[in-house]
Amino acid sequence: MTSELIPSDYSEWLAALKTQIQTARQKAILAVNQELIALYWHIGRDILTRQAEQGWGTKVIEQLAKDLRTAFPELKGFSRANLMSMRAFAEAWPDMAIVQQLVGQLPWGHNIVLLTRLKDTGLRMAYARQALEYGWSRNTLNIHIETQRIEREGLAVTNFESRLPAYQSELARDSLKDPYRLDFLGLGKDAEERAIESALV
Predict the structure, then answer these.
(1) Which residues have C-beta within 8 Å of that of residue 50, sequence separation ≥ 6?
(2) If you placed Cys at 78, which of 40, 63, 68, 122 could pair as Cys (CB 3.0 to 4.6 Å)?
(3) Count of H-run helices and E-run strands, the chain
(4) CA angle at residue 38 from 35 to 44, to 5 degrees?
(5) How far is CA 91 from CA 35, 78, 148, 192, in A?
(6) What is the spatial distance between Cα 144 and Cα 179, in angstroms, rounded to a whole number?
(7) Calculated CA dihedral for residues 157, 126, 117, 100, nearest 10 degrees
(8) Could you tell me the end-to-end alpha-carbon distance of the chain, in angstroms, rounded to an integer?
(9) Is the distance from CB of 115 to CB of 85 less than 8 angstroms?
(10) How confident is the model at residue 153, as a pLDDT?
């Protein structure tokens, strides 16, 4: 007769199973997202190609939006505006390899922010990389673009590396880049270096 007692290692086993389930769910979500972004890129590329070859304009996109919504009423991504965003997405990223390796790992909303807020491809890539690396939400990405986080990085010349331990020098450098701290000190982005130094001291 088997014992009905819960084994002593049950809690650890349950915790490990929960972690495996969460990991599997996250991988599934990422895989679905990558497929969706790839689909949007292909639709956008097809629109670009057909417009170039056949010379048709927005009337065809309006008809396409209507037909796709009729065929897939449960899907919300086939509005005229979103089809135009797919076109812009494929135009901004003509290389599918970049889509697969970088922006395809970001949610569509993040990609729309990158497209609408930034015109420079290099900046788009830099913000996309940091959004992936740091797990930024769409809101956070918007804030960092607005405050020009990437553009400010590495611009300040300091002696922090030689004077402070590594962990402190990184923190000090980040403190100088933080626009919220500068606002708190009453300094805008046009403040002169001497005013910033005086306020910090």
Answers:
(1) 56, 60
(2) 68
(3) 12, 0
(4) 140
(5) 18, 18, 24, 39
(6) 10
(7) 180
(8) 76
(9) yes
(10) 79
Distance CA 167, CA 162 (A): 12
Q: Two tokens at 179?
A: 């626009």
DSSP conformation class of 191: -
Inter-residue contact 109 to 33 (CB < 8 Å): no
Query: In this structure, is the dihedral angle defined by the CA atoms of residues 94, 99, 104 and 105, taken in order, positive or negative?
Result: negative
Contact 160, 151 (CB under 8 A): no
Per-run averaged pLDDT (10 residues), the chain, 201 residues: 78 95 88 93 96 88 96 92 96 93 93 96 94 93 94 59 51 46 48 55 48
On whether the CB atoms of residues 160 and 200 are closer than 8 A, the answer is no
CB count within 10 Å of CB 141 equals 22
What is the number of other CB atoms lying within 10 angstroms of the CB of residue 88?
Answer: 17
Instruction: Put residue 137 in one of left, alpha, beta given phi > 0 → left and psi -120 to 50 → alpha.
Output: beta
Closest C-alpha among 110, 173, 188 to residue 142: 110
CB 196 within 8 A of CB 188: no
* Residue among 192, 177, 113, 103 nearest 147 (CA): 177
Region for 135 from its dihedrals, namely left if φ exceeds 0, alpha if ψ lies in -120 to 50, beta otherwise: left
